[in-house]
Amino acid sequence: MQKIGKQTIKFDNPPTILECASIVGPKESKGPLAKYFDQTLEDEFWGEKTWEKAESKIIKETVNTVIHKSGISSDKIDCCFAGDLLNQCISSSFGLREINLPFFGVFGACSTFVESMCLGSICIESFAENVLCATSSHFCSAEKQFRFPLELGNQRPPTAQWTVTGSGAVILSKNGQGPYITHITPGKIVDMGIKDANNMGAAMAPAFADTLVTHFLDTGRNPSYYDAIISGDLGYIGKDIAIDIAKSQGYNIKQNYNDCGVLIFDKSSQDTHSGGSGCACCGTVFSGYLFKQLKEKKIKKLLLIATGALMNSTSSQQGESIPGVAHAISIEL
Prior knowledge:
This protein is of the alpha/beta class and 333 residues long.
């Protein structure tokens, strides 16, 4: 493991993404990627009394699924990195309290999935044989915490995104035949002064572009090196902004760039405005769709950059701007 350039780490023995699992809610199950998920739910409660309990159940069952699919027993997993959007990451800690593994709670907002994989990869390169990484989000619990109670029926502006209900989980391993995480580029906090909590794409796009350009400068690569460059949840508006910022810095990413928030819903029929968002947006799209594209060799080189808005309800109410962050992993066969 060695640092190259300003903030990129290159792995001498790249960790393998051994297996992935994903569970999504009812709206996601009607989207264009429905067939790629391991399980789809018929309602937001999944037999629980609250949305928060439902989210905990979703991440719990997703983790159980990925362990089962991997074929390794849980006692062979050295540690777990997991996080979500709720205060103090209660979905992850409550959902995984019976997993009986060393647990690292991670908060990077919607960048949590890739942040967990970055940290897990460092562990694999140093001491661990197998590491579990997971995240979750829930539309109803997120709206309740960050915006308005659903019962209030507030109108959502066109810039708003739809928090994905679901969970994605991966197992990273020292042993395996790939896909491999060859590089990671942890991101810096970037704050361009956006204060609108209903315009997350604009708040996060500058952080995405900063990490993207830094990755290219550190590695000496350019956009054409990758078959696909995928951001976590910038949505339609954030995606366009990201393309413009990258172009202004000399990188044309339009040909092979897309966003998980754009991919997971059908814009014309599902009324999700600017697309999907949430920790599970990147988590489910990668664990369900992108991982299968890698395994089938339809994508051989993937740059996955998950984006996060590092705010909470208090900071928004106090008029603070929204800091963004983006973490990148380079995945190759």
